[in-house]
């Protein structure tokens, strides 16, 4: 029996639809089996940063240093503002040479403030370097703990719920508590 082109297309479409539906229904089952085997888990790095004592202490030290740098920058800005205000009040009575001298002083102070701001808060500045110096040892420690837990429990993947764009995950796959417990033990 010879089938028409329309019948063949309908038949092929039906078979493709069955395959697609089968794949759609098998995907959650496959991920469920993989998750049940304990191979995929996640952590909440925000919680680790909020609850890991050493991280909290490092953040406090960093915040104090940032506050000191901010105060230093504000003092420099206040000095520039004061010089500008003084210049505006005296502008009419100053000789051209004295006016130029005061304007040059203000420009020098502004340049020093800009250099300070760039040196401290700019890319690769003191703040960035200090943050890295404070957090790198802690991040290394966290990574070591994560690797240990992953190897002990045969986890294939450990995702970060904060940076990993996890739209949904079961709470029982969250190993953040294990990581925090291990970090507490090695302190």
Topology, number of strands? 2
Q: Main β-sheet, in a few words?
A: 2 strands, parallel
Structural class assignment: mainly alpha
Question: What is the number of domains?
Answer: 2
Written as H for each helix and E for each strand, in order along the chain, the element string is HEHHHHEH
Which strand order spans the largest sheet, edge to edge or round the barrel? 1-2
Number of helices: 6
Give the C-alpha Rg: 31 Å
Strand proportion: under 5%
- Mean pLDDT value: 82
Which stretches are low in confidence, meaning pLDDT under 50 for 5 or more residues running? Answer: 1-35
Tell the overall outline.
rod-shaped
Task: Please characterize this protein's 3D structure.
With 187 residues, the protein is mainly alpha-helical. The chain has 2 domains: 1-36; 37-185, no CATH class. Helix content is 75%, strand content 4%. It contains 6 helices and 2 strands. It has helices at residues 5-36, 45-51, 53-90, 96-121, 126-152, 176-185, and strands at 40-43, 157-160. It has a two-stranded parallel ribbon with strand order 1-2. The radius of gyration is 31 Å and the shape is rod-shaped. The model is unreliable at 1-35 (pLDDT under 50).
What is this entry, summarized?
The protein is mainly α.
Which features does this protein show?
mainly alpha; 187 residues; two-stranded parallel ribbon; 6 helices; 2 domains; 4% strand; rod-shaped
């Amino acid at each position: 029996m010879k089938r028409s082109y329309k019948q063949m297309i309908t038949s092929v479409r039906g078979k493709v639809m069955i395959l697609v539906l089968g794949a759609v229904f098998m995907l959650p089952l496959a991920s469920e089996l993989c998750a049940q085997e304990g191979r995929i888990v996640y952590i909440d790095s925000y919680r680790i940063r909020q609850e890991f004592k050493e991280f909290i202490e490092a953040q406090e030290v960093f915040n104090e240093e940032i506050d000191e740098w901010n105060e230093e920058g504000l003092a420099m800005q206040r000095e520039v503002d004061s010089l500008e205000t003084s210049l505006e009040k005296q502008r009419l009575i100053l000789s051209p040479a004295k006016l130029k001298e005061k304007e040059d002083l203000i420009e020098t102070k502004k340049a020093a403030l800009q250099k300070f701001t760039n040196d401290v808060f700019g890319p690769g500045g003191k703040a960035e370097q200090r943050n890295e110096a404070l957090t790198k040892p802690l991040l290394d420690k966290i990574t070591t703990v994560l690797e240990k837990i992953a190897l002990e429990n045969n986890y294939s993947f450990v995702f970060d719920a904060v940076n990993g764009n996890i739209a949904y995950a079961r709470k029982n796959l969250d190993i953040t508590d294990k990581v925090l417990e291990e970090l507490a033990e090695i302190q």
